[in-house]
Amino acid sequence: MTNHDLNDGSAVKHRHRHEGPQKHIIAFVFSIILTLIAFATVAAGGVNIAFTVLLLLVMAVLQVLVQLGYWMHLKDKGHMMPILFMAGGFFVAGLAIIAALYWMWW
Amino acid sequence: MTTPHAQQASSALPHEPEKATLEGRNKVLGFWLFLGGEAVLFGTLFATFLTLRNQVADGPSASELFSLPITAAATFILLVSSLTSVFAIQAMHRGNRTSLVRWLGLTVLLGLAFLALEIYEFAEYIIHDDYGMTTSAFSSAFYTLVGFHGAHVLFGILWISILIGQLFKKGLTVVTAPKVYVSAMYWHFIDVVWVFIFTVVYLLGKVVG
């Protein structure tokens, strides 16, 4: 009977292969920490401006990568086309920002 | 032998119901293309904002205008709502409609809280500080970028609310599952855009406003 139940449990687990919430909660905690670092640095003030700007941008990029990778599953197998679409979108967005700044101010 | 409960859950729906049909898979793939286009759309708004961010005319500068606690609260609310929509999809993968609807409902409520905070913030600028769309190039770019994101939040709230109604009416099937999945992708994307907004508009505004 016990053996039966054990087999039963593993069979169900195997067929479903549901991912648990752990990974997503870790991604959430990571996002919170990155956000807190960014806000705390600005709230504290007094830090070198160039360093602060760099730190904020790194925190933002890291958080976006965590969320795209884990919550939107881009990290998972079989996401080549979605990664291409998003990378293409971000590339053109970055190009637009650089072009607009260059066009206006240089 | 499987228990009746496990059997029911597995026979009712495939493991990932959003990818069970070709139509579902195409819907998800097509939505990624749409999100790539959305990234370009927001990219142009960011480009406008970054270009005009110092053109404040007679109005206050970014660092004088913004309040960090409100932005921090809005950020936290949207981040939690992204997590609740992850839990909604996990409930969907377990075939649990009740739990799915609850997590979607919570996501909608958090979206409403975010929107209320943004409306309060804008009203404070417009009424209290007399700081409107036409005050300066900076204010136009600011209201356009942040307001456009807010409009996306509003659209997401309406979309997910309608989906909740459809889940009650039609149940969780291989037809409704891709719709739920795609709306969760949209909601995550809104949060991704907000990460850039709170960093580039608010935090950088405080540092180099």
TrEMBL record, chain A:
**What InterPro entries does the entry give?**
Cyt_c_oxidase_su4_prok, Cytochrome_c_oxidase_bac_sub4
Give compartment(s): Cell membrane
Q: Which UniProt keywords apply?
A: Cell membrane, Membrane, Transmembrane, Transmembrane helix
Which spans are transmembrane here? 25-43, 49-71, 83-105
- Domain of life of the organism in this record? Bacteria
Where this protein primarily resides, as one coarse class? membrane
Signal peptide range equals: none
> Which Pfam families does the record match to this protein?
COX4_pro (PF03626)
Q: What membrane topology does the UniProt entry give?
A: Multi-pass membrane protein
Protein family? Belongs to the cytochrome c oxidase bacterial subunit 4 family.
The protein's name: Cytochrome C oxidase subunit IV
Native species: Paenibacillus vini
The major lineage groups are: Bacteria, Bacillati, Bacillota, Bacilli, Bacillales
UniProtKB/TrEMBL annotation, chain B:
Q: Tell me which SUPFAM superfamilies the record gives.
A: Cytochrome c oxidase subunit III-like (SSF81452)
- Where the record annotates domain Heme-copper oxidase subunit III family profile, the positions are 29-206
Keyword Transmembrane recorded: yes
Which key words are in the record? Cell membrane, Membrane, Transmembrane, Transmembrane helix
The UniProt entry, under InterPro entries, shows: Cyt_c/ubiquinol_Oxase_su3, Cyt_c_oxidase-like_su3, Cyt_c_oxidase_su3-like_sf, Cyt_c_oxidase_su3_a-hlx, Ubiquinol_oxase_su3_dom
Stated family: Belongs to the cytochrome c oxidase subunit 3 family.
Q: What is this protein called?
A: Cytochrome c oxidase subunit 3
